Every structure is written in C-alpha cells, then in structure tokens.
Amino acid sequence: xxxxxxxxxxxxxxxxxxxxxxxxxxxxxxxxxxxxxxxxxxxxxxxxxxxxxxxxxxxxxxxxxxxxxxxxxxxxxxxxxxxxxx
Length: 86
Fold this sequence. Notes:
Elements: E1 3-9, E2 17-21, H1 26-32, E3 35-37, E4 46-49, H2 53-62, E5 66-73, E6 76-82
Antiparallel strand pairs: 1-6, 2-4, 3-4, 5-6
Subcellular location: Cytoplasm, Cytosol; Nucleus membrane
Pfam families: GFRP (PF06399)
GO molecular function: GTP cyclohydrolase binding
C-alpha cells in the first residue's frame, strides 16, 4: 500500500492522530502502535494513535514514507504520504 493519509483535529494537534482506515496494512499500523476503533454511529473503523502528528510523521519517514502534501480543511489537518515501490 504505497499511499497513506493521516489527520488530526486542529484543537488536538498533540494527539490523537488518525493513521488509517479499516483497510490499512496491519503491519504498518502495528509499527505505529495504532489501535482500531469504531466510533458509535459510524459504520466503519479507523486506526488511531495517541502520538501527535509530528511523531507519527517521523515514524513513517523511518519506514520509507514521504509527505506529498498537507492541507487544512475546516478544523482538520491532513497529510498524504507515499512510499515508493521497488
């Protein structure tokens, strides 16, 4: 899975950070220390970590991911990352 999207709420920039959806690579989620959660009322699961985005981005860089773009949408900050496949 070469692309990854992480996000956080602006008021929560110290964590938690959303690091994946229910289809994310379980090995990567394990390396990040993420836990799979389903919020009451949602019909999908997400992976979250308590770390702030900066720590998550550092961990992902160590395993080969690079930030492609970053944006703010309302009260949400989001980063798109890519890992080159060999």
